[in-house]
């Protein structure tokens, strides 16, 4: 299928976290979008236990990592009126459902690298690409490289000026049509990152990012992660906030590129988000359902991955994330063996 054609294979993220007069416009427009018409029906979702799936044949370490442990994982919160699940019909993807689609998501087992492709300029306020690369490498436990940056005018994507912000936007579906050809031969997936604003079709105000569930390509923008995009220059040190938001959107979008759909079971990195407040409230970690999916795909060492993430969180002073990671490691360590 032509990846430039919008389809349910794409996952989009838009935000209403803009001045109220813009939010109204945005909501009106999103209702026109095919994927944004109905709220999720919570009663139809599988239970959290069914979503995790049977752990009978799992190793003790896997059981410790994937079981529903209330001390580590909170069930997903009720959605507020402007939240993602109030406006999008998510069915919930169980681990067993993921296992069935894995051969399609991962048609080749030899592709064990990721690539980040910068589009346009990354000025002094942009997040560090090297730190993002490292986070991505630790999170997915795959070697990750940064490709040579491509100037905006060299990307074959339609542009428009957003009438609310008067800022240039690039059409994501054009980028996603071009991107697979930029993917290195050894890479499982390539993700384009940019400080330019994005839109997925004419009826939308903007999107944070968009990824293909199959095909190994995605694009996301950091533009709206800086409050100064909306004219708010009151905050003094925004670099930690912008970097954390960028880490989250990068790994969330890449999670989709591993075939993981939005999570409706726990508070989780893979929850959908409709606005920045909702995205900021979501954790950087995966819940047991989504971690089990990623583990099935990548087959990483659960303990080593968490230890390296803990070191990263400590280095970046991500205190809450580091605290959680220590707690999780405390649970995993007694079940590790030298053979694992
Ligand atoms: Zn998403
Ligand atoms: Zn999850």
From TrEMBL:
Matching CDD domains: Peptidase_M54
Keywords from the named record: Hydrolase, Metal-binding, Metalloprotease, Protease, Zinc
Keyword Transcription regulation carried by entry: no
Gene3D superfamilies documented for this protein: Collagenase (Catalytic Domain) (3.40.390.10)
GO MF term (any one): metal ion binding
Pfam family, one: Peptidase_M54
Single biological process term from Gene Ontology: proteolysis
Cofactor: Zn(2+)
PANTHER family in alphabetical order: ARCHAEMETZINCIN, ARCHAEMETZINCIN-2
This protein's name: Archaemetzincin
Source organism per UniProt: Brevifollis gellanilyticus
């Amino acid at each position: 299928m032509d990846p430039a054609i919008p389809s349910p294979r794409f996952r989009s993220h838009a935000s209403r976290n803009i001045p109220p007069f813009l939010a109204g416009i945005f909501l009106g427009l999103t209702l026109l979008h095919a994927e944004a018409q109905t709220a999720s029906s919570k009663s139809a979702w599988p239970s959290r236990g069914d979503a995790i799936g049977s752990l009978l044949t799992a190793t003790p370490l896997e059981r410790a990592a994937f079981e529903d442990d209330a001390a580590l994982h909170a069930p997903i919160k009720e959605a507020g009126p402007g939240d993602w699940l109030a406006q999008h019909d998510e069915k919930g993807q169980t681990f067993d459902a993921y296992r069935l689609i894995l051969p399609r998501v991962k048609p080749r087992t030899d592709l064990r690298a990721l690539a980040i492709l910068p589009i346009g300029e990354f000025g002094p306020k942009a997040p560090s690409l090297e730190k993002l690369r490292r986070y991505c490498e630790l999170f997915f436990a795959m070697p990750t490289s940064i490709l040579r940056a491509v100037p905006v005018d060299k990307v074959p994507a339609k542009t428009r000026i957003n009438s609310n912000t008067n800022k240039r936007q690039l059409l994501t579906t054009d980028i996603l049509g071009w991107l697979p050809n930029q993917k290195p031969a050894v890479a499982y997936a390539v993700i384009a990152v940019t400080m330019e604003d994005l839109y997925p079709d004419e009826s939308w105000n903007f999107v944070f990012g968009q990824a293909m569930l199959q095909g190994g390509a995605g694009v996301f923008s950091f533009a709206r992660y800086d409050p100064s995009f909306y004219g708010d220059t009151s905050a003094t040190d925004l670099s930690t906030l912008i970097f954390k938001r960028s880490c989250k959107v990068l790994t969330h979008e890449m999670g989709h590129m591993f075939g993981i759909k939005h999570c409706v079971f726990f508070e989780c990195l893979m929850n959908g988000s409709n606005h920045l407040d909702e995205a900021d409230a979501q954790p950087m970690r995966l819940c047991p359902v989504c971690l089990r999916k990623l583990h099935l795909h990548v087959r990483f060492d659960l303990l080593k991955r968490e230890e390296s993430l803990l070191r990263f969180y400590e280095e970046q002073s991500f205190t809450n994330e580091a605290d959680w990671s220590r707690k999780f490691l405390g649970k995993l360590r007694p079940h590790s063996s030298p053979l694992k």
